[in-house]
């Protein structure tokens, strides 16, 4: 049996409502700052929020790379090229998490 034949036909759906909600909340907070709303979050609070989003986006990127490798037969060389990094760096960055971590 070929490796491609062992691959599931479709990935599990990506479930990320917390990320979507956090992006909407950030957008609304930035709009409030722009409008001069005195009750808007501080710039420091917004920066902390952005770092939290960055972590969630990094986790999502890892899951998507795993999906690309598993369902589209993407190689580590292709991953490295897409991110303009070396193959060992690509594996170190994306090779640790399991594709079962969807929605984390």
* Helix fraction bin: 55-70%
How many runs of DSSP E, i.e. beta strands?
Answer: 0
Structural class: mainly alpha
Task: Count structural domains.
Answer: 1
Low-confidence stretches: none
Element pattern in H and E: HHHHH
Number of helices: 5
Q: For the terminal residues, how far apart are their CA atoms?
A: 33 Å
What quaternary form is this?
Answer: single chain
Per DSSP, what share of the residues sits in E-state strands of 2 or more residues? under 5%
User: How would a crystallographer describe the biggest sheet?
Assistant: none
Rg is: 18 Å
Shape: elongated
Determine the mean pLDDT. 85
Which terms summarize this structure?
single chain; about 100 residues; mainly alpha; about 0% strand; elongated
